[in-house]
Amino acid sequence: MSFQSLGFLVFLAAGVWVCRLLEGFRLRRSSASAGSAAENALPLTLFSLFFYWQGCGGLPDLLPIGADLLVTWSAVRYLQSGREHRKPVFALAAGWQIAVLLLYKYAAFFTGGRVAIASSPLGLSFFTFQQLWLLKEVYGGGFTLERGLGSGYVLYSLFFPTVVSGPILKPQNFFPQLRQKPSRMEAGDFAAGLYALSLGMAKKVLLADPLGTVVSNGWGLGNSLTAPAAWVVILGYTLQLYLDFSGYCDIASGCARLLGFRLPINFDAPYRALSVGEFWKRWHITLTAFLRECVYIPLGGSRRGTVRTYINILTVYLISGLWHGAGWTFLVWGGLHGLAQVAERLWDSRRERVPRALRWCWTFLFVNLAWVFFQAPSLPAAGMLLRSAVCGGPGLPLEALAAGALDSEATALRTLLPFAAKAVPGLVLAALFTIGLAVSLRRQSAARQMENFRPSPGKAAACGILLAWSVLSFSSAATFIYSNF
C-alpha cells in the first residue's frame, strides 16, 4: 500500500479514527491512569500488521519477518533474564538478523548471480537495523523491554509509518511513548500532522517524481548527452533523492503525529552543510546514529589511534554503501564519503580558514558527484555521465529532458499560453529546479517545524491546495526511492 494513493489516505483516516476513538474510551474510563502499554499498542499493531500484509508479496515474504520477530523477542527475553551465556545469545540473534539480510539482498552479489532470490520482505533493510539496535541496547543494559509489551514490540518493528523506509527507531525513542496516558488530540497536533503530511506529499508527487522523469530522460540520451544536459541530470537526481526521501519522512512524521507519536528528525537541511562530516549529521540522521552507536563505537571509534580511526571511518561508510544496495556503485559511493571524511580530518585545522561560501560549494559539488555512483546502474554508466559532464558538447535539449514531466500542468500552460507553447519545456524545467532547490535548501525541515507548529488560516489553505494537487497527481506517482533499499 503506497503512501501516495487514495487507498492509503483512507487507511490512515480509519486508523486515526479508530485509535483515537479507543483512546477516548480509555480516557473517560480512567482519566488518572496511563493504561497498559498493551492497551495503547494493540489497535495500532493490528493496523500495522494489515499494512505490512498488504505490502508483502505473499507468504514467502512474511515467513522470514515472522522468524526474525520470534528470534529477536526470544533473545531479548533471555538477555533480560539474568542467565549465563548472554554474549553467545546476543551474537547468535544478531547473526541471524544479518544472515537473513545477506541472503535476501546480497546472495546474487556475493555469488556472481548464481544464487538469487527474486524478492525480499518489505522494508527488510530498515527492519533489520532496527532489530539490531534493540538487541544491542538490551544487551548493553541501555534499555529494558518491560513485560506485557509483546504487542508493543511488534508495533515497534512494523509501525506502518516507518516500516518501509524509516526513520530507524531507537527503542528509547519509541517504547516510552506507549506508556503515555491517553489524551485528547490537540488541534495543534492535528494541524501539525496534516502540515507535514501535505508537504511530504507535495515534495514527493509534485517535485521528486517530475525531477525523476527529467533524470530518466537524460539517461535515455546515452552517449549523445551534452555537458549542460549531464549537469541537469546530476543536479536533478541530487534534488530528486532528497525530496523523495525527506518527503517520505515528512509523511511518516505527519502520520505518526496524527496517531499520537513523535518520530525522530531524519533530515536537517543536509544540502546546507559546509563539510561532508556535517552533511552526515544532517542526512538520514537515524542511520548515521545507528552506524555510530552500533558499528563505529564497537570497532573502537577514535580511541585506538589515528590510523585505526580512519580505518573505522572507511569501514562504516563501506557498510553504509553496501546497506543501500548490492553493487559496486554503492561501495564506491560509500568509499568516497569515507575518504572525504578522512581528508577533512587531515585538513581539519586549516579548513575553518576557508570562506563559508567556498566550503559550501565544495561540499555540495562533492555530494552531487558522489550521487552519480549511487544512482548509476553500473560503474561504466557512471563514468559515461561524468565524462559527458566534462567533455560533452554544448546545447540543452529542453524538449527531450522535459518530456513527460508535469504533463498535465504543461498541457494547461500550452492551452492558456498558446503563443508561448515552445517555451513550456523550459518553463517546466526552470520551475522544477528553482522550487526544488529552494525547498532543498530551506533552513528548517517540515519535521522540525512540527516541534513548535502554530496553525493559521493561510497555512491551512496552502496545505489543502498542496494535498489536493498531490492527490490529483497520484496516477503518475512513482514508488519511493528508498523503498528499494
Give a nutshell description of this structure.
By secondary structure, the protein is mainly α. It has helices at 6-29, 37-55, 59-79, 86-110, 124-140, 150-158, 171-178, 187-220, 227-258, 276-282, 285-296, 306-324, 328-346, 348-351, 356-375, 379-391, 398-402, 407-416, 424-440, 446-449, 457-472.
Descriptive keywords:
485 residues, mainly alpha, 0% strand, globular, 69% helix
Strand content: under 5%
Structural class: mainly alpha
State the end-to-end distance. Answer: 17 Å
The count of DSSP E runs of length 2 or more, i.e. the number of strands, is 0
**Biggest beta sheet attributes:** none
Question: Overall 3D geometry?
Answer: globular
How many helices does DSSP assign?
21
Helix content: 55-70%
Radius of gyration equals 23 Å
Overall mean confidence score, pLDDT: 88
Strand and helix order: HHHHHHHHHHHHHHHHHHHHH
Which residue ranges are poorly predicted, with pLDDT under 50 across at least 5 consecutive positions?
none
Written account of the structure:
Helices cover 69% and strands 0% of the residues. The protein is built from 21 helices and no strands. The protein has helices at residues 6-29, 37-55, 59-79, 86-110, 124-140, 150-158, 171-178, 187-220, 227-258, 276-282, 285-296, 306-324, 328-346, 348-351, 356-375, 379-391, 398-402, 407-416, 424-440, 446-449, 457-472. Helix 13 packs antiparallel against helix 15. The longest helix is centred in the middle third of the chain and has 34 residues, at 187-220.
